[in-house]
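STRUCTURE REQUEST FORM
Protein name: DUF4437 domain-containing protein
Source organism: Nonomuraea spiralis
Requested output: structure tokens
Priority: standard
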Amino acid sequence: MRPHVELIHEKDYVWHGAELIGGEGRASERRLSVDEEDGSCSLRIDFHTRWGRGPGVHHADTEYFVLEGSMTYGGRTIGRGGYVHAPKGVPAEAVTFAEGTRILHYREYGDAGFDPGAARRPGAGDDVIVLDSAAMTWDAVPNAGPMPGLFIKYLHVDPVSGFYTRLVHSQEGWSDHRLAHHPCYEEAYTIEGRMEYNFGTLLDNTYFFRPARVKHGHFTTMEGGVTWILRSDGELQNWYTQNEWVRWGGEAVNYGPNGGRMRWSQSSHDLGAGSPPRSERDLADLRASLAFARRQGGQDVDFVPHGQGTDKSVLAVAKAMDAARLQGGHSDHHDHHDHKHDHDHAHPDWGADPHVLEHPDERTDSGSHNWAQGRPWKQGDPIPAPVISSLPVRSRSAGRWSTDGM
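Status: completed
Returned output:
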């Protein structure tokens, strides 16, 4: 599995010698995220000299995207925006990168292995895709959320798994006041522009890898819009959450005042109060998104940033306690007696038990060790609840984590 990374600027990663087997030349890589279980990784690579490798077969589904400079594949040279997708086990032609070229390099479901001159492997997928994305036109996203203003260029879509890589552009003023989670992972590298959202500021060269089912949103797009390359390991279904809150706590045994015991509790509302507030521009855009949704017939609630207004976790706890009392609970008596009597204790009503929203095989399949493992989803399947990922790996030099996506 890959850790939740949100939000990191590439300059906060250290350089390593690039793991490009069988090639000639010198290059360095920044490891944006790595799956230590199957070898999948996302890399930023700089070529310090001309680098080249002959034809052969990759051990992983492999992608190259040119940020700056040029790539030559099979005799065809492509500059900024050049894209190659070489499926695992499919013969790829010779590739070279000019000195000074900067690329994104993705390997999925395999390691960096490369077999020179090898033949097609049994069961290998489709042929290699070569695109000049700069020459492609932008298409409007048919379901852009509450507002129009998102545009897309599809680079690769797997017809079986739904895995896809695309360029996405959000025009200035596009916003979404809701939080979403998905059945698949989502990762993005910002090519240019600026967008604010709950985990921080998407600036040039910022990156996130977000496992399946992690909530995110409250997007606002700044001057000039923003463009990023975005990947998902399945079809991106949007499941929305509003009135979100998180509260957690416990009892300190040996670290309260003067080293003694103490009960403690904290909510996402508390954390939001200590974060830099959303700008007036942000708030205006989020309210515009809400107004648009209501004009379309949506029943969306008002957007209130965490740290402002009433703490929703306190309201939820109070409502649960009221429900427990109405259901015959007896939280007000404190006698110590066993539970062999024939009346039931009522439990607070917190809504749906997240377990009833899981896929039936979630706790028995190969991904059962990871709640944020993506799984195929189709209409009619249970919609899994979000998982809590309150403190992702985060950049020290960019971003603003306001906790409202927890």
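Reviewer notes: Confidence is low (pLDDT under 50) at residues 331-337. The CA atoms of residues 126 and 148 lie 33 Å apart.
Form closed.
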